[in-house]
Amino acid sequence: MRIGIDVGGTNTDAVLMDGTTVVSSTKTPTTANVSEGIAAALRDVIADSGINTASIDGVMIGTTHFTNAVVERKHLTPTACIRLGLPATVCLPPMVDWPLDLRDIVGGNAHLAHGGHEFDGREISAFEPDEVRDIAEKIKAAGLKAIAISSVFSPVNSIFEEQSAEIVRSVIPDANITLSSEIGRIGLLERENAAIMNSCLRQLAARTVDGFKAALDELRITSPFYISQNDGTLMNADFAKEYPVLTFASGPTNSMRGAAFLSGLKDAIVVDVGGTTTDIGVLQHGFPRVAALAVDIGGVRTNFRMPDTYSIGLGGGSLIQEDPLKVGPRSVGYELTEKALVFGGDVLTATDIIVAGGVSTPREGGSVEGGALNIGDSNVVADLDSGLVEAVQARIMEMIAIAVDRMKTSATPVPVIVVGGGSILVTGEIEGASEIIKPDHFPVANAIGAAIAQVGGECDRIFSLAELSRDEALDQAKQEASDRAVNAGAAAASVDIVDVEEVPLAYLPGNATRIMVKAVGDLRGVLPPGEGGGVERGA
Amino acid sequence: MRLLYEENIEDIALGAAVLGTGGGGDPYVGKLMAREAIRQYGPVELYTLDELDDDDLIVPSAGMGAPIVIVEKLPAGDDMIRAFQALGKYSGREPRGTMSIEAGGLNSIMPIYVAARLRIPMVDCDGMGRAFPEIQMTIFTAYGITASPFAMSDERGNVLLMDTVSNKWVETFARSCVVHMGAEGMIALYSATVKQLKEAAIYGTITLAEEIGQTVRDARLNEANPVDAVRKAVGGFLIFRGKITDVDRRIEGGWNRGDATMAGTGDFEGQALKLDFQNEHLAVRVNGEFAATVPDLIAVLDGETGEPITTEALRYGMRVAVIAFPCAPQWREPDALKLAHPRYFGYDVDYIPVEERYRGL
Predict the structure, then answer these.
(1) Does A487 touch chain B (CB under 8 A)?
(2) Domains in chain B, start-ordered, CATH in brackets?
(3) Which of A78, A134, A160, B91 is deepest in the core (most CB within 10 A)?
């Protein structure tokens, strides 16, 4: 059995799953000390099901804790950066594009050294060990132990980053070092930014992950636990301590992966309706489609593979304005249960309209927690003008339909999966949807997404098709990605290539092509082949 | 003369992306370079041509190579300065200032870095009024201003100087040399006197880019319609509003070529649009009829935010607006037009200025 936990800003959700069956689920408030909230959620699901903790094979945790730390500028460790690429890159030193307040907190301790590669693997300049040793001495003298190392075109060749790390460790034995090539792709500033943020989050990551561990120990859960990352795959707890930035987008990813699991669909649009916003994403092969553009985290540009989501200001708490008719974007948010009419408040919200309409019946067998027929006091809204109720419902469906259409990958109608606490807002048909699915357990889709996560590996490199055939290059890329998935803990037999992307590079000679491949597989030991793994992949 | 501060750069970058008509490189790196240089060396003096002496020598600065490389191998900065100074040395004259060779994309902003570091004037004009992929595609070529002498430098300190028999030869040699520099070189070219520029240059394009950027920003703040604000700022026409229904990209002759199709929405319901691009947008057809072509400018904007969208970012489902606006009048003179005629890009059609097509609408 597995437990999936989603630690959000407001709620901590947990589910207990046996194979593909959800045994129990809970929603509890997130606490300032996250491990208390987790312990409470764990107690709930375990007590609810009455199982023996010894039968738990794994605990999967999704958290937005590290994203929030950067956004709120809290718990960040001062970090130095060494960039190899001289004489190139001088005019834009590390952290040049950071918000000044964040740069101040992190320390702005940046160093440039020789090294780096060209796009085709030639060296920009020779690596100089003594230069790096001198820099390491300076960093040591400044009392810093958190260090990020970047090198130009390190996604093509990371040797200089690795050699530098060795030298830094010889000077500062307990240095906490992040290499940019371990976590990013082409785009020096963005990759380096991610590496710096990673090093400055590691102390917090160690504390937080230890806190998770303490919560599990308290409940005598001895199984391994994992943290879910941006792309919906898992990393083990030790890896999460090393790479906290890889959790930055796990929230939306988990809700989409949970939706895939609950519906049994691999290709669909997911509509996650919350209290204030609705996030729309696209599932491809059971994974979220990733964004093409750079993503800002707390004002810092990164190039993580983040789910491509589109948000609109529509949720259960959205304010209704009657003339002219307007739904959202203003919302009562988490105060819904105090301010909405049906809860004795004096604000007309989208939830009130839906209760007045009374049409949101769950699908056959669906367990709608606090469903439409049982939300607050429906008598309060019984007298609402039925014309208004219908107009608002129509407007809500129109807003969702436009957003869904925006995210579609082709004109063909696709299934739409609706999840999230505000799902009751979806009361009719969505234009362009082949069907609308509100699966069981939709309010805790994100915790389920965490519970069913897999492990993955990526390859993102430029190949010269003058030396290799295209097929050879693709095979090489697929092999690298698969090897990385296995190294990350995937059962080799279950590894599957889920994404191949080729970008022909105009201007570059030798038919240069950037190939990005992603491989995923089931976690060794937790999801034995043939059992579990509710989302089937590959045909 | 007016001063360009850090705050002006953001607007110029946004406007430059509009004038980049889908290509020209992401101005992000150029924006950071200009901003950092201004922080360090102080504001840049932006001059109009009229404020300079006819004899003053102006040397444009630019970068050339692959856009994907410049985001990884960030410029040294010294490479730009070196190319600029090498050209002055070869010419035997001290340049008075610098300028942009193309108003669209990355190269509109990079010279601001040179101006800031050398504390020399930046001139408010350029040689295209937009962005084009090849070196000889400038108004200057038509007016007999030579791209030679041409200097190109890399971060290592190599400097190449070329003196060629035509501007097209600069393109040919420089394109193969830049590969050896790691597909990224900083260049200085098309040096000209203010007198020559008064005849051939496109005036006020930095200011135009800034105004476009400012307009978009104001429109967003005031919750006005940013698309319409851009259209007005560039004196253009709304060609289409719709949703991208297909994007087809391919590599032909070393270029990113492709087309996007869109289905109309709102006033354009029931209409279909086809947009062709080769690095930049080349031509747009509505219901099969040409609605605008090069050398006029065609920009694709996010339908809500007015943010310009590059050809790499075009994607199914995006709600966009397509606007077209007249190129600089110099492009319409015979010698210039043949450099950037629709036929040069493979369209067997006459060039009809966009405002003639849309007259009375």
Answers:
(1) no
(2) 2-205 (3.40.1610.10), 226-357 (2.40.390.10)
(3) A160
